[in-house]
Design goal:
- This protein has two domains: 4-52 and 129-186, no CATH class; 56-125 and 211-235, no CATH class.
- The protein contains seven helices and eleven strands.
- The chain has helices at 7-18, 28-51, 72-75, 135-140, 150-165, 170-186, 232-235; strands at residues 4-6, 57-62, 69-71, 81-90, 96-98, 100-101, 110-111, 118-125, 142-144, 217-221, 224-230.
- Strands 3, 6, 7, 10 and 11 form a five-stranded mixed β-sheet that branches. The chain has a four-stranded antiparallel β-sheet with strand order 2-8-4-5. Strands 1-9 form a two-stranded antiparallel sheet.
- Helix 1 (7-18) crosses helix 5 (150-165), helix 2 runs parallel beside helix 6 and helix 5 (150-165) packs antiparallel against helix 6 (170-186).
Amino acid sequence: MARTVTYLELYNRLERAADIEGDTHLSAVEKRDIINVAVAETWDVICNTGLAEKYVKSVTFNSVAGQMEYPLATAVSAGDFYRIHQLYTVEPQGQLRPLQRVQPSELRPFKAPVNTVPMKLYYIPCAPKPDPAIQAPWEATVFDGINGWEEHTVMTACFNVKAKKDDGYGQFGARKQELERRMAMLGNVDFGEPIRVSRKRRSRAYDYFPYNNMVNGYGIRGDKIELYYLDAYAWQ
C-alpha cells in the first residue's frame, strides 16, 4: 500500500517545520507554489535513484503507414509525458517486443513504418502540478512519497521559504542531502531478485524475425516520437 500524502498535508508540514504558521510574509498561494516546485524536485530525485517504476503509466496507439512522427501530446492524451520508460510493438500473438532507441547518426537504413502497427508506450509522467490559486483541488492533490520520502519535499520547501525570507536555511539543506543519500542507497534495488551478469551484444541488432510488425526502432525529437522501419535493401 502506497504511503501517499495530500498537498494539504505537505502545506501544514511546511508551516510547522519552517515555523511560519500565521506568518504573513508569504501568501498561501506562494506557499502552495513553493510546494509544487519542491514536489517536482523530489520527483526527479526519486526517478534518478531508479524508482521511476513507481510512477510509470502506459498508453497504446497505432502507427500510420508512411508516417514517421507522432506528437507526444496526441499519443499521451493526459498531457503529462516526461520521459520514456519503454516502447513496444504489440505482436499479433500478443507479445510485447521492446524497441531500441536509434541515434540520429544511425538513421540512413530506416524509413517510416509501411503498415499499421499497434504500439504500447510505458512512460514516466511529470510530477503533479495543480493550480496553486485554486485551493480545494490543490489541497486534494496526492503525492506518493513511497516510504516517507515526502520529507524531502518538505525540507526543499522549507529551504526555499527560508532563502526567500533571508533566514537561516542550513539545517534544511543538510537534511535534504541526508535524505538524498538515503534515497540513492535504497533506490534501484530489488531484494527479490539476485544480482545478474548482463551479457551485451557486440553490435546493435535489428532482427525482427519471427515477428510480423515492421517497426524496428524509435527516436525522440522535440515533442514527437519517431518510429522507424528497417529497410533491408538500404541496410546492405
